[in-house]
């Protein structure tokens, strides 16, 4: 069973809702998933992260990038980085912000860079956007993220009101994808370690 940790920051609760939805989708898809808020890192948090098969990064977009609290966590991850302890783990990410665009992609780009510095394997949404004339706000992937999950919460909406149900459903589908890709990845790795897999070109 894939062991997935969602490490996230949420200043006002909206991004937390997204983290919970990603957890729901990944759990339903058969993974063991934990939420790890950066504001409440437990003593063995780093050991838990080192032992995970996949780490999902989540933060609100503040001033065109990940929130400072998330960045503090990312800077602290230089310790496992030294020993490349997260190398070859699956990575994915999501951000929530007030504008439909709001420079969210800079946050996702930062997550990709963080994952690459750690030698991780990045997984995007794998989802088509809802972008036709007939599309409505609660359709899957209406905000249109490919590299990472994008959700939107109007500036005056409480976490009870936003992100809207369609974005939370998109987060669930994304969580399921992360669980499935991670399961496939750890199965393939086990096959290789057990000598059960041969590249096609070397087959008789
Ligand atoms: C300091 C600060 C900076 C923000 N900068 C942006 C921004 O660059 N783009 C944007 O779309 N929204 C921005 N927002 C709005 C937040 O992204 C939005 O309120 C989000 O839902 C907050 O998520 P949270 O409740 O998880 O903290 C900003 C909010 C704060 C407090």
UniProtKB/TrEMBL annotation:
Transmembrane segments annotated in the record for this chain:
none
The Flavodoxin-like domain is annotated at 4-151
Database matches in Pfam families: FMN_red
Species of origin: Caballeronia calidae
Respond yes or no to whether keyword Flavoprotein is given for this record. Answer: yes
Q: Which InterPro entries match?
A: Flavodoxin/NO_synth, Flavodoxin_CS, Flavoprotein-like_sf, FMN_Rdtase-like_dom
Q: Which GO terms describe its cellular component?
A: membrane
The entry lists its GO molecular-function terms as: electron transfer activity; FMN binding; NAD(P)H dehydrogenase (quinone) activity
Q: Which cofactor does it need?
A: FMN
What is the name of this protein? Flavoprotein WrbA
Carries keyword Flavoprotein?
yes
Q: Which PROSITE patterns match?
A: FLAVODOXIN (PS00201), FLAVODOXIN_LIKE (PS50902)
Q: Which UniProt keywords apply?
A: Flavoprotein, FMN
